Amino acid sequence: MSTSSVKEVVKEKYGQAALRVKAGAGNSCCGGSAALEASCDPITSNLYNTAQEGEVPDTAMKASLGCGNPTALAELKPGETVLDLGSGGGIDVLLSARRVGPAGKAYGLDMTEEMLALAEENKAKSGLTNAEFLKGEIENIPLPDNSVDVIISNCVINLSGDKDRVLKEAFRVLKPGGRFAVSDVVVRGGVPAGIRKNMELWVGCVAGALSDYEYVAKLTKAGFDDIEIEPTRVYSVEDARTFLAAQGLNVDALAQQVEGKFISAFVRATKTAGACCAPGCCA
Q: For the chain, what percentages of helix, strand and coil (3-state, to nearest 5) are there?
């Protein structure tokens, strides 16, 4: 499937998810498919503690479709500028805005109109003035070179059909010494073609995932140093069983092949100081 086709399917599914949250239908899970609602719990549930839940509007929490909690792991500092790639309903942007304080700034970037509208509503409810939501694609970030201290993302980079471009853009907008600190689904070992090719699973945070080796290689190619991949959750056969059954795939034939291979991970990397200090040098 082409990159443009992937993008359109992702946009449609996440747009539907935002509309369901606004209609009061609750968390619609990763893929926004009713058939997947129960099966997404192993990836999307219990990511934020009670204190964090109290810091954001309820609709921001319900629209959270991620696989981790990058704001808790990124060690954000007061005064920093943060960019969330694929910010959805805005939960990680709003949490980041609180972490960096009035002297800092938190940007959210999303391509889905419905999610951006929901994020703006959540921002208004939060009362925060140092958060800003941008419309655009993570493959073409609408910010200047060397303008961001930290890039976060929550299970979105795996949805891109051009991950090399995403990482190159992330490197470009980071300041020298800036930090890449994202949560994502990562694959360890081989994965059956039936899972890779299934579009609903792609949109649902699984089938577009890179292997750990691929992730390191692509970050290195983009120019990053100090690369680390820290597992935060390992999914069992039973977790995978629910996903596979919801897609009409042969669970018994495939389940044993995915045992422990899908993980949520915190991916860290650094743009070495001086790596790109002149305007336009990362273009």
A: 40, 20, 35
- At residue 10, the pLDDT reads 62
Alpha-carbon distance 207 to 6, whole Å? 11
Domain range for residue 25?
3-270
- Domain presence at residue 138: yes
- Whether 282 is in a domain gets the answer no
- As a whole number of angstroms, the distance between CA 88 and CA 81 comes to 18
Alpha-carbon distance of 278 to 280, in angstroms, equals 6
Residue 212 lies in a domain: yes
**What pLDDT was estimated at residue 33?**
40
Q: Give the residue, 209 or 102, on which the prediction is more confident.
A: 102
Residue with the two structure tokens 């390191």: 216
Give phi and psi for 148, each to the nearest 5: -130, 140
The percent of residues above 70 in pLDDT, for the chain, comes to: 67
